[in-house]
Each structure stands twice: as structure tokens, then as C-alpha cells.
RNA sequence: GCCCGGAUGGCGGAAUUGGUAGACGCAGCAGACUCAAAAUCUGCCGUUCGCAAGGAUGUGCAGGUUCGAUUCCUGUUCCGGGCACCA
């Protein structure tokens, strides 16, 4: 009987649904285990073979843990809000809810075919009001909380108000240095941003609320966005290409808009500490650590001298530059604040650089420099942060102002440059060219003199960032090792009152609002310019139906266009003290809002009273294994960690790290295929004179693309042919060696045949009817086009399919194959991202249809390590399919004429109840050891190969014994659940294999008494010798040195060293 | 530019702690079965010299440590992911 995967898979999938075998209860005597996939975004393009990689890996693990006796939670759902659906709505007029629903259904169909063990009763969708009610609710918890630095945790904002009433904010300074919102109430913070209890009580409501906003974990402030005037909208970074919008190419500038933020920076230290308690890869921890970017340094205030008023003289005595200032100076009102991790280099500061956005620039730029500075700022405005940092070209402008070194009075020019970003530190740096490569290049480029403070350790050719050498040229620091000087300088600065030690984070607070429709509305109502929470009983605050998705008049989200929605509530809670109507917030939340807590909802997804019941979250607790790509390293993973910590602090859950272990799946890359279309050919043709003139008169020949050569009979043209016959394709060999192709007589003959054929098809073709004959080709170009990988077999193009492809766009294509005739056409290839637009996607459903889900699952795992990126190649799938057929034949005889699957008769079965021999049990237990270990550590590719080895060995041994086969099936069940279930029942079991017990490894079957030792002479392998495992070092030496091969290589040279590693190898050094 | 990862036969990969490089599979070659094909089975299969036995060489590149390096160290090239509004 044949292995009929279609019937088997259909039968069991149906059976599993009917019997609800994947339903998981929140109560169980078994230990719990939580296996989670990263939340998928249901894109319109559907699944390609890259997506299920992680899902299969987690599915195998979930099934494996179930066999090991755990109550396993393994849910799936959709991160369903997002930009693409809204963009699709704008372009096609289909409501995002509708297209999202379609996409989800399509996704589900594809997923179901692969046979996953998800408990679909726990499905969640972020765009479902029943779900986002709780996203909004959590937002309100964050809004109503602040981070108490004393206790290092989130606490209630009402608690903070009580504290203010009692003692002011003396013990709770405002977290950020500058106010996010301008305070225009009755308090003008001047020194230190502190106020007393009495002052607090005198503040009006607006002032109080503005101050509280500076503390809230979810707060409102101002931030820069990519603003596209022409489209009237805010654009995502990847919608901006080279400073213009991807759609339409309109200019994009930075614009400040009111935004919501999450105060994740307050959690920076706890996010760092938490990394020590979780099982993430070192690379992942490093990425998060770098992203948080904690550094310790100093903030230093420099007095500023305006440019006109200084006069500096420099005198060089030996290697030292003496600087003296001869004119009395007047200082600017403001000081320049810089953040530096290297205060020890203060005497090496040769210039300052401030970010082009810095407020100071307006005040300090001198009249002469104003135009230069303005022009430079205009240039920077059009550039993204990434471009600004990636730029190799050095740009900048001098403000004309100078800062003063507080220790020696040296005047330091203040520059602006795009490589300093406003958001990091104070938005200004002190540049030390001898110690920092970027500063060094800047100084060289603008001819700024460089002060050397590290003597011979600076060679003048490149900066040296050392901290380990003694300082020179540094006044009171001379001779002190740099890293020791750091503290000395900081102390001195503190003493002088112009600096302080400062911990800085690269991480910024997370922008939490989008000017879009398709996201969660904020449960916030604005009354007299103050944001108030919408009462919980109004949740969920649902999205309204809209007709258009265009932004509001000031760049707000589309909701701003719907007064009915904005003013929908009439209750007292929504009426401002000044009267009128309170307006709902019109921004919506970003994609990561819903995905920051979804793993909690799975635990108790139908709860209507809470985001998840405490009992459920206590039982399921942390996600034990979380599988997904590294692309989420610093976004989703940090935000969800922060939300978890906040919910923990506020007492809603009892764990403060969401994911105990993280497994990063690699990306499956696409292998794109190319065809090469002939482009311009510069060639000579023989053509009669009359025709040539007629072409010319009728403008068929374009000016400049032809010339007369050799009297008037030979003409040289370009691009002439491609206008008549556009679709001529060259096979890879010829397309990648154009010079040879151009010289090929065969190729020229072919072109002449093509034109002749064309003429036969169209006898009236005026152009061709003249005598046109190719003679010499001077040069040619080709245009590579991607072609759908699904119409290419390996590298050979299916020519008929190609002609039908894209509604017959290439139906007239002339494909010149490898020998320049009408034979095999070979495509070029390139490994790149798998994407619909590159025509290199492969649909898993097609493969499941052809080989079955079990084969597909195992093949995806067999491709390589889960963590590694690798290109997809469908070819190898046959091997895995053969393996399953071979397994099948251990149970059933292969029939020449297969009976129908329903006739699964015992007569064809070859499996038996005989007692297994030791040799057979050795095969089995070797497999148990390897497969169990490999599965546990996610090394699925080697586990699959161990299955293959085991089945090969059993087949060779002609072992069809149930005693061996049954445990093998149980091990296989996580990988290939359908065939395992089928054969499990064939062996006479009536329960499901899902609940079988995993076989136990017994080491006694693997005990060996001797080993074939590899023997090397001087590190080179020369022979193998079989030696008993319990042999002593002396015995081994004796045996080895007596061996003929060893003797031959040792000759008579004395043995210097004899290395014997038990159970490993032997090396003789002579 | 910055941060993280990767590179091993024609291809995907294996080698778990520094100890036989190339397991397993694909592709290829030769053969068996068959009227034939499919399916299946057997053998060969890094490169190179050699009839063979056997030798040399070989894990991106250049060095280093070691009795021994795909594995550790230094430098370097190329490729992939991320860089804060794609998800």
C-alpha cells in the first residue's frame, strides 16, 4: 500500500478538529508550558515559505513538550492594525477592517493546511474592540502612573499628587531635563524645576496638569515627524526615500507635532538588569544593551563668547601651542551645555559641534555667518537621522561664536553639523580630534588646528581613542592616566558649579501616536488644553466608520475630520470647566500598542472584566519559549518588556519579564531568477540607400543614433531593433558575457533569422521590407528582469509558462537559449529577500498540495538551523518525501497496484510483534538520545537527519518490529503529526499519539567496549586502530607504536610526546 | 556611518566542550529491476597527482596561539538583519 498523504492528512486534521484535541485548559494537574510565536501581521500577500519556519519550529516544540507531560499553551492570533491596510484602503477604497478580515481568513487557510496544534479558541486580533478595549485600558494605567525613582517602580499618579501636596517635588524631580509641554500657567520654573507644597497648591489646574504630564508613563509632548506638504500627511521612515516621498516624489521635511510618548527611558536600568534573568542569545542582549546605550559621563556648561569680540593669538613653542586672548570679552546670556563621556580630554577640545536643531543657534550665530548657517540648516532639514549619521561626506557650518574652556580660557569655535543629533545627550558635543575619529576628520576637513593631549600616542594621521595613556598639554592633568583624570575633572567642574556627573541613555522615549486611522483610538479627552482620561465605562472607545482616510487640517489623523466622533460624549466628564465641548484625541496608537501585551490576553482571551484574570496569568506566567525574528530585537521586545514591568509594578501580574527564553529564527531568503532582455545594440546593417533615406524622412531613425560608415552603404544604428522586436531574451551564458556574444557569428545569424521571420509574419512591415541585414555588432546591452521562480525549474525557464506569464506580456518573446537556438533557456539567479515584488515567493500551500504537510514541515526544518538565514530551494524536498515513504514501507508492503486508502487491510502490513534484538534496540536508542537532545535545543535539522539515519538503518536491518517502530513514531509525531497518527493507529492504538508518552533513553544499549581510534602523526591523520576503551595509557602507547603504519611514519625518530585523549583520538609527536 | 549576525563540496548543511572536516539530504555519474517509464535498490561522488596502494591540498582572505584550529585570538573582505512612524 502506498503512502497516501492527502487522505491521511485530511482525515486526521478533521478528526483533531472534531475532537478538539488542541483545546487547552487553564487548570491542569500537569506542569504548564507556554510556547509562543511572534504575533504575525496578516499582510495581503499571504504566507510564503519563509513565514511558517518559526511556526513549525514552535509547533514541534509544543507537541514535544506535550509528549513530555506538560499542559502546553500554544496560541495564535493577529497583529491586525497597521499602515499597509490603511494604504490599501486609500488606494482601493476598501475599509481596512474588511481587507484585514480577508487577509486573516486567507492566512488561516494557509496555516491550517500545515497542521499546527494551535488552540484556536484563544485567537486574538488587535483590531477587535473586545481586544483593544484592554489596550486602551492599559494605556490609561500608564497615563495614570509615574515612575518613582526612589522605589524604581511605577506608582499611581494620585499618590504623586498627594506627595506634591505634602512636600512639593523636592524628592521627585522632573524626569526629563526640559519640559515637553510649554508651561504657560501660573508657574515659571526657573531654578532647578522644583516647587514647594505651598506653591503646588497655588497652581491652577492647567499648570498642575502640565506638571503631572512631565511624570506620567504615557504622556503628551512635541516631536518631529516626516511631514509631506504635497500629500498633506505624515510619512513613515520607509515611505521616505532620499528626502522625498516614495509615492510621488514630493519633498519631505521635519515638522513638530503634538505626540504621545511612553516614558520607557525611566525603565532603562530595569530593562538592562532584566536581561540578566532571561535566556536570550548574547547577540540579542547586546543589541538591546546597545540600544538602551547607557553611558556615564559629564554634562559641562561652557560660557559663550560672540564672534566679533574676541581676538586670539597663538604662539607655537616646540610641540606646544600657547594661546592668549587679548580682548576683554562679553558673554552670551546662555551657556552651551555638552554631554561627554570623556571629560578627561577637556584640554584637547578644539571645537564644539551642536545639532542643527539646537535652540542656541539662533542666539549665537553671528551676522556674517547667518546666511551660511541658515543654508546649512535648510539642507539638514531634508535629511533623515539615518542619512545624517551614515553620511561619509563631512558637512558643517561655523556659527561665528566661541565657547570658553573654563580651565584655561581658550576660545573654542562652535560649529553645527548634521552628525550631531538633537535627541541624544544635550544635542551638543565637545570635539576632541586627537581622540575621536569623526572629530578628527571634521577638523581636517575644515582646517581646524588640532591640539595633541596624548603626545606620542597621537600620530597626526588618525585619532587614538585610548583611555590608558598619560595626559599632556593638559594643565593640572598633565601626567595623569586619562581614565583616572575623568573623575578629577568632574569633581572640579562640580566645585566650580558648571558641570555634573551624568548618566545618559541613547534610548529615547517611545513615540506612541500616529496620525492615522487604522489603530486604537486614545481614551483621552481634551478639556481646555488638558488631557483627561476617558472614564473606563466608555471603553472600548471604538473607531468610527469613515469615508476617507485623509489627514486632518493640521496633519492630525483622519479622525480629526469627524466632529460627530470627536464630540460624541455629552456627559459631565467631557465638558470643560470653561464650557463648550471636550474633544477626543484624534491620533491613534502605533502597531506596537496591541503587540506589547497580547501574550497576556491568550491566557484568558474571553475575559470581559479584566485584560486577563490574575488566576490565569499566575498559572501560565511567563512565556517559556518565544520564537521570532531578530528584526524585533529592539522594538517589540523592549516595549513588551516595559509594559510587563509596568503591569507588574501596578500589581496586575506577578512577573516582570514576559519571555523566559527567546529563540530567533533566521530568515528564509528568496532565490530570484532573472531573464535578460536585449537592450540597445550598436550595430552595422547593410541597408539600401533609399530605405535609409526613407527611414530618416519618416523619423523612424532617431537623430544621433545612426551614422553612415564606409561610403553610404553601411549604417550604424543603436536601439533600432528593440523598437521593432522588443522581447528578445538571451540565456545566462550569453547575457553574462556580452563581448563574446557580440562577436558571435551565430548570434548575428540569429538576429537576421529573427528579422526575416518577423518580416514573414508581417510582409507589410515597411521597416523590415527593405534589405536589412546585420553585419557587425559593436556593443550590446541587456536589461535583467526578474521572472517568477515558480515557472523556472531549477535554472531552466519553462518557456511556455513564461509566454503566458503576466497575462501574456511576453507572448511574443524570442528566447535564445544556451546554444543561441531554440533550446534550454537558463536563467540567472540572485539571493535576496523573499517578496512578492521580486517574484521569488513560494506558497507553502502549493508544496503541501504536492508533497503533504508532513513532508513540508520536515523539509523546512531540514533546510538548516532555525536561527540561521538561508535561501529557499524547493528541489531538496524530494529527499524528505522519500524518507517518509521509506518509513511507511517499514509498516506496509509497497503494492504494485495500490488499494484505496479505506482498504487499509492487515494483509499488507509488514510490521510485527517480534522481540527486538540488541542491535535493533541500539539503533532505536541511538535515535532517542540524538533526537530528544536535538529537539530540546531546537536543532531540528540534525534531528531530521537522525530520523533518516534511523529509518535507513532499520530498513537495512529489515526490522519491522513494533517494539522499535512505536517509540520511533512517538518521537516523529511532533515533526510529522499526520503520518505518525495514522501509523500509530495502524499499530492498533485507539487513543491519539498526541498524548503518548515520550520514549525513555536507555544508555545500556549503547555501551561499547572498543573504539576505532584515529591516530595522527604530528597532527596528520595516518591510520585508525581499534583499541579497547578500558585500555590504559601505557597499553595504548604500546599498541599504537607497534602498528605498521605508525612505524612507517615515525621511522626512527624519537617520540617527543604521545597524546591520548580517551574516547577521542591519539596523536604521536616526533 | 553605528550595532548584531554569517561565510565549510556543484547546492542546503553536519562536526554539541580545541581532537577522524564534509553526517544527512539534493543534484550528478555508473549499475540492477522494467518492453519502457515511474517508483525502488546498489555503488561512486571536495580539489589534485596516481593504474593502484598511497600522497599533497582543503572550512571567505592574511596572520597568530596549540601536539592538534571550521572551532580560540588579531586584522581584513563580502553578504544578511536592525538603526526609533513597515511589521
Concise description?
By secondary structure, this protein is an alpha+beta fold.
What is the structural class?
alpha+beta
Number-wise, the strands total 38
Sequence stretches where pLDDT stays below 50 over 5 or more residues: 896-907
Mean pLDDT: 87
Q: Oligomer, anyone?
A: single chain
Number of helices: 36
Largest sheet: 8 strands, mixed
Instruction: Give the CA-CA distance, first to last residue.
Output: 62 Å
Radius of gyration: 37 Å
Shape: globular
In helices, the fraction of residues equals: 25-40%
Into which percentage range does the β-strand content fall?
A: 15-25%
Describe the SSE topology.
Blueprint: H1 5-18, E1 32-37, H2 52-67, E2 71-73, H3 83-92, H4 96-113, H5 129-143, E3 145-148, E4 153-156, H6 157-167, H7 197-202, H8 205-213, E5 218-228, E6 233-235, E7 240-241, E8 244-245, E9 253-262, H9 268-274, H10 282-292, E10 294-305, E11 312-317, E12 320-325, E13 331-340, E14 351-354, H11 360-364, H12 367-381, H13 385-390, E15 397-404, E16 411-416, E17 428-431, H14 437-445, H15 482-496, E18 499-505, E19 510-511, E20 524-527, E21 530-533, H16 563-566, E22 583-584, H17 592-595, H18 598-601, H19 614-620, E23 625-629, H20 636-649, E24 662-665, E25 668-686, H21 689-697, E26 706-709, E27 714-717, H22 720-724, E28 728-730, H23 732-735, H24 738-743, H25 745-761, H26 766-769, E29 773-787, E30 792-793, E31 796-797, H27 799-808, E32 814-816, E33 828-832, H28 844-851, H29 853-862, E34 870-871, H30 877-891, H31 918-936, H32 940-956, H33 962-972, H34 977-986, E35 1010-1017, E36 1020-1028, H35 1033-1042, H36 1044-1050, E37 1057-1061, E38 1065-1069
Parallel strand pairs: 1-2, 1-23, 14-16, 23-24, 25-34, 28-32, 35-38
Antiparallel strand pairs: 3-4, 5-6, 5-9, 7-8, 9-19, 10-13, 10-15, 10-18, 11-12, 14-17, 15-16, 20-21, 20-22, 25-27, 25-28, 25-29, 25-33, 26-27, 30-31, 35-36, 37-38
Helix pairs in contact: 1-34, 3-4, 28-29, 29-30, 30-32, 31-32, 31-33, 33-34
The structure holds one RNA strand of 87 nucleotides.
Amino acid at each position: 500500500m502506498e503512502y497516501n498523504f492527502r487522505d491521511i492528512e485530511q482525515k486526521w486534521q478533521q478528526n483533531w478538529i472534531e475532537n478538539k484535541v488542541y483545546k487547552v485548559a487553564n487548570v491542569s494537574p500537569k506542569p504548564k508550558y507556554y510556547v509562543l510565536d511572534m504575533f504575525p501581521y496578516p499582510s495581503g500577500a499571504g504566507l510564503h515559505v519563509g513565514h511558517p519556519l518559526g511556526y513549525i519550529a514552535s509547533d514541534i516544540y509544543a507537541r514535544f513538550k506535550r509528549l513530555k507531560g506538560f499542559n502546553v499553551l500554544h496560541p495564535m492570533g493577529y497583529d491586525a492594525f497597521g499602515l499597509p491596510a490603511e494604504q490599501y484602503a486609500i488606494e482601493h477604497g476598501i475599509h481596512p477592517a474588511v481587507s484585514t478580515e480577508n487577509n486573516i481568513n486567507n492566512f488561516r487557510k494557509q496555516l491550517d493546511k500545515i497542521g499546527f496544534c494551535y488552540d484556536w479558541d484563544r485567537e486574538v486580533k488587535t483590531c477587535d474592540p473586545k481586544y483593544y478595549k484592554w489596550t486602551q485600558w492599559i494605556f490609561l494605567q500608564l497615563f495614570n502612573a509615574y515612575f518613582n525613582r526612589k522605589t524604581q517602580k511605577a506608582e499611581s499618579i494620585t499618590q504623586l499628587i498627594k506627595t506634591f501636596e505634602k512636600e512639593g517635588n523636592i524628592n521627585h524631580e522632573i524626569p526629563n531635563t526640559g519640559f515637553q509641554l510649554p508651561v504657560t500657567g501660573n508657574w515659571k520654573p526657573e531654578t532647578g524645576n522644583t516647587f514647594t507644597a505651598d506653591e503646588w497648591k497655588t497652581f491652577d489646574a492647567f499648570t498642575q496638569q502640565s506638571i503631572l504630564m512631565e511624570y506620567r508613563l504615557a504622556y503628551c509632548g512635541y516631536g518631529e515627524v516626516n511631514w509631506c506638504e504635497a500629500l498633506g500627511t505624515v510619512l513613515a521612515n520607509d515611505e521616505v526615500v532620499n528626502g522625498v516621498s516614495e509615492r510621488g516624489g514630493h519633498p519631505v521635511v521635519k515638522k513638530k507635532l503634538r505626540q504621545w510618548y511612553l516614558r520607557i527611558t525611566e525603565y532603562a536600568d530595569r530593562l538592562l538588569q532584566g536581561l540578566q534573568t532571561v535566556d536570550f542569545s548574547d547577540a540579542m542582549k547586546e543589541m538591546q544593551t546597545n540600544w538602551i546605550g547607557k553611558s556615564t559621563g559629564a554634562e559641562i556648561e561652557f560660557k559663550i563668547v560672540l564672534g566679533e569680540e574676541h581676538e586670539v593669538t597663538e604662539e607655537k613653542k616646540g610641540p606646544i601651542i600657547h594661546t592668549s586672548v587679548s580682548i576683554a570679552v562679553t558673554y552670551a546670556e546662555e551657556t552651551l551645555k555638552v554631554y561627554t563621556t570623556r571629560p578627561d580630554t577637556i584640554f584637547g577640545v578644539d571645537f564644539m559641534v551642536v545639532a542643527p536643531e539646537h535652540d542656541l543657534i539662533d542666539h549665537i550665530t553671528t551676522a556674517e555667518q547667518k546666511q551660511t548657517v541658515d543654508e546649512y540648516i535648510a539642507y539638514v532639514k531634508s535629511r533623515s537621522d539615518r542619512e545624517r549619521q551614515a553620511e561619509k561626506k563631512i558637512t558643517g557650518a561655523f556659527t561665528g561664536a566661541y565657547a570658553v574652556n573654563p580651565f584655561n580660557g581658550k576660545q573654542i569655535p562652535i560649529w553645527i553639523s548634521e552628525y550631531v543629533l538633537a535627541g541624544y545627550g544635550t544635542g551638543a558635543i565637545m570635539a576632541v580630534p586627537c581622540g575621536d575619529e569623526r572629530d578628527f576628520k571634521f577638523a581636517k576637513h575644515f582646517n581646524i588646528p588640532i591640539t595633541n593631549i596624548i603626545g606620542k600616542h597621537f600620530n597626526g594621521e588618525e585619532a587614538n581613542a585610548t583611555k590608558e595613556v598619560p595626559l599632556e598639554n593638559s594643565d593640572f592633568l598633565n601626567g595623569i592616566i586619562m581614565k583616572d583624570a575623568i573623575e578629577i575633572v568632574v569633581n572640579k567642574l562640580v566645585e566650580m558649579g558648571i558641570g555634573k556627573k551624568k548618566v545618559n541613555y541613547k534610548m529615547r522615549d517611545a513615540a506612541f501616536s500616529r496620525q492615522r486611522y487604522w489603530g486604537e483610538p486614545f481614551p483621552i479627552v481634551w478639556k481646555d488644553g488638558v488631557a483627561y482620561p476617558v472614564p473606563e465605562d466608555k471603553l472600548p472607545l471604538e473607531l468610527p466608520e469613515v469615508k476617507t482616510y485623509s489627514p486632518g487640517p493640521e496633519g492630525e489623523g483622519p479622525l480629526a475630520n469627524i466632529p460627530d466622533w470627536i464630540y460624541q460624549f455629552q456627559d459631565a466628564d467631557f465638558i470643560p470647566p470653561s464650557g463648550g465641548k471636550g474633544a477626543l484625541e484624534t491620533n491613534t496608537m502605533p502597531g506596537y500598542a496591541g503587540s506589547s501585551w497580547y501574550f497576556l490576553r491568550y491566557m484568558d482571551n474571553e475575559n470581559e472584566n479584566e485584560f486577563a484574570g490574575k488566576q490565569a496569568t499566575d498559572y501560565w506566567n511567563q512565556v517559556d519559549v518565544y520564537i521570532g525574528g531578530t528584526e524585533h530585537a529592539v522594538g517589540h521586545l523592549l516595549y513588551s518588556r516595559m509594559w510587563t514591568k509596568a503591569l507588574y509594578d501596578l500589581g496586575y501580574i506577578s512577573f516582570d519579564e514576559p519571555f523566559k527564553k527567546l529563540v530567533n529564527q533566521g530568515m528564509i531568503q528568496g532565490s530570484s531568477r532573472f531573464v535578460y532582455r536585449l537592450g540597445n545594440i550598436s550595430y552595422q546593417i547593410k541597408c539600401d540607400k533609399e530605405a535609409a533615406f526613407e527611414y530618416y524622412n519618416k523619423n523612424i531613425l532617431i537623430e544621433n543614433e545612426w551614422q553612415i560608415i564606409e561610403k553610404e552603404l553601411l549604417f550604424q544604428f543603436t536601439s533600432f531593433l528593440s523598437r521593432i522586436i522588443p522581447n528578445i531574451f538571451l540565456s545566462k551564458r550569453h547575457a553574462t558575457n556580452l563581448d563574446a556574444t557580440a562577436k558571435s557569428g551565430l548570434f548575428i545569424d540569429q538576429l537576421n533569422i529573427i528579422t526575416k521571420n518577423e518580416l514573414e509574419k508581417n510582409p507589410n512591415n515597411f521597416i523590415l521590407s527593405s534589405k536589412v541585414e546585420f553585419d557587425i555588432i559593436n556593443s550590446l546591452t541587456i536589461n535583467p528582469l526578474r521572472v517568477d521562480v515558480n515557472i523556472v525549474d531549477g535554472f531552466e525557464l519553462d518557456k511556455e509558462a513564461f509566454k503566458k506569464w503576466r497575462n501574456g506580456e511576453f507572448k511574443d518573446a524570442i528566447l535564445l537559449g544556451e546554444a543561441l537556438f531554440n533550446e534550454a533557456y537558463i536563467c540567472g539567479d540572485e539571493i535576496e529577500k523573499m517578496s512578492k515584488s521580486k517574484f521569488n515567493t513560494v506558497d507553502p500551500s502549493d508544496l503541501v498540495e504536492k508533497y503533504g504537510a508532513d513532508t513540508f514541515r520536515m523539509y523546512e526544518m531540514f533546510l538548516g538551523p532555525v536561527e540561521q538565514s538561508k535561501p529557499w530551494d524547493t528541489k531538496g524536498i524530494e529527499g524528505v518525501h522519500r524518507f517518509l515513504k521509506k518509513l511507511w514501507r517499514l509498516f506496509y508492503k509497497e503494492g504494485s497496484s495500490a488499494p484505496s486508502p479505506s482498504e487499509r487491510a492487515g494483509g499488507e502490513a509488514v510490521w510485527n510483534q517480534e522481540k527486538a534484538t540488541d542491535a535493533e534496540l541500539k539503533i532505536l536508542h541511538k535515535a532517542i538520545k540524538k533526537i530528544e537532545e536535538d529537539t530540546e535545543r531546537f536543532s531540528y535539522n540534525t534531528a531530521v537527519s537522525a530520523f533518516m539515519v534511523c529509518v535507513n538503518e532499520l530498513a537495512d536491518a529489515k526490522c519491522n518490529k513494533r517494539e522499535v517502530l512505536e517509540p520511533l513514531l512517538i518521537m516523529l509525531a511532533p515533526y510529522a503529526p499526520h503520518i505518525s497518527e495514522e501509523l500509530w493507529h495502524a499499530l492498533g492504538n485507539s487513543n491519539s499519539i498526541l498524548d503518548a508518552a515520550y520514549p525513555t533513553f536507555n544508555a545500556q544499549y549503547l555501551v561499547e567496549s572498543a573504539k576505532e581510534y584515529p591516530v595522527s602523526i604530528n597532527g596528520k591523520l595516518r591510520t585508525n586502530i581499534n583499541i579497547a576503551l578500558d585500555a590504559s595509557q601505557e597499553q595504548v602507547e604500546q599498541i599504537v607504536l607497534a602498528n605498521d603504519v605508525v612505524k612507517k611514519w615515525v621511522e626512527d625518530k624519537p617520540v617527543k610526546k604521545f597524546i591520548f585523549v580517551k574516547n577521542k583520538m591519539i596523536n604521536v609527536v616526533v
